[in-house]
Amino acid sequence: MRDVIPAYSPTTYTYMAIYPIRTFGDPVLRATAVDVTDDAESLHRLVDDMLETMYEAPGVGLAGPQIGISKRIFVADIGEGPFAMVNPELVEVSGSWTFDEGCLSVPGYYWPIKRPGYAKAKGYDIDGNPVELEGDELMGRVLQHEIDHLHGMLLIERLSRRAKKQALRDIREDAMRSAGYA
Ligand code: ZN
Hints:
Blueprint: H1 40-56, E1 61-63, E2 73-76, E3 83-94, E4 97-101, E5 111-115, E6 118-124, E7 130-135, H2 137-150, H3 161-178
Antiparallel strand pairs: 1-2, 2-3, 3-6, 4-5, 6-7
The site of zinc ion has 5 residues, from helix 2.
């Protein structure tokens, strides 16, 4: 079950910026994002830059906080074209689906994470029109994952207590190893 995803065509600016992606440990990823109040032009520019950054990474979705912009916005493309959601909120979830989930802010890791399979979100498109997006499997997952970012929550928080402990241990050990401490 899936709504038609509103098409988004990037505007062409002379410069499109690729932002550095904030990674695990950066406090902006734990902050609660605020509503977007940008005017149309800056919003279009931001979305273009976010899409550029997401495709370059490459990733399936990217939320504002991941580029250090603590605003309630995300972009995504699950293989059916790019879309953006402004001030989104989850309004319905159901079912259950375990999927090997990753995040550009915790690069290189994938964990089997169980979440509701279906999700519906309400919000606005970049022109301020109300939109409702829903879907199961990857679409449902992206909606939940990206909206979590806007609440300052990373996918690690969705692991079981035990799996989370192990994940944090793995991340720390890998970081120490790459810093030459182990
Ligand atoms: Zn993420």
